[in-house]
Amino acid sequence: MRPYIGICDFTAPEQAHRLLQLIPHGFSHDLMVGVMMSYKTLNNLPTKWARVFPAKKNIRSIFVDDPRVLNTIHYADYATGVDADRQLAYTLAKVEIYGGACLGAIQLDMIWPDPDELKKFREHCNIPIILQVGANAMRECGDDPIATCERLKTYGTTINAVLFDKSMGRGVGMDAALLAKYAGVLSFDCPHLAPAVAGGLGPSSMDLVAPLIRAFPDLSIDAQGRLRKSGNMKDPIDWSMAEDYFTQAVALFSKQP
């Protein structure tokens, strides 16, 4: 799985084609085309995001067939405990179907999903999985990078990458020094897992991630909340802002050896 520069909330393939024009020949990172789905939108349940997330039947039409693209469904379900999805393997099998032939990865926006369910899913589907480790997941591990990576070891090879993301789409600026600790421990204790970070990235905040990119040239990054002038997650992406963010990200990674 190659590192990527991600944007979440694509709604049409033309948006991806616009950004692909900005990738130089032989560039180190792919473009992650992120599309949101939740347990509720998957199962036709009422949700405040119904007009924001694309209809599940339309997701495959958003993805583009290009080797420089990592088409990814960001599947969100933060229910835990007795409310957790006890049939996650079956659920993810349905998610994969809606992704279509060009689906390249599934990101789990969840709080420590059941490792056994992920193992069941991967026995029948070899699609890469990115696990979001957000603020709540970190808190369950005492906000300790070592304890967090110990928890990640319980997943074995069922996951391929880890997104450290305390913002979780809300546009809150990342703490680069803190995320460097998480990425550093991950690279030492779990070298088979690719590191990724997110948190408040956009065209006016790429300085937040620049130190991390210098320290980890193979890092992946993702942006969502700060790609809207309004700052409102229920508004569509401003693709001029997205293009600016992506251009700056390409320049930062191009400077690395």
From TrEMBL:
Top-level taxon in the UniProt lineage: Bacteria
InterPro entries: Aldolase_TIM
Gene3D superfamilies named in the record: Aldolase class I
Protein name: Phosphoribosylanthranilate isomerase
Lineage, highest ranks first: Bacteria, Candidatus Lloydiibacteriota
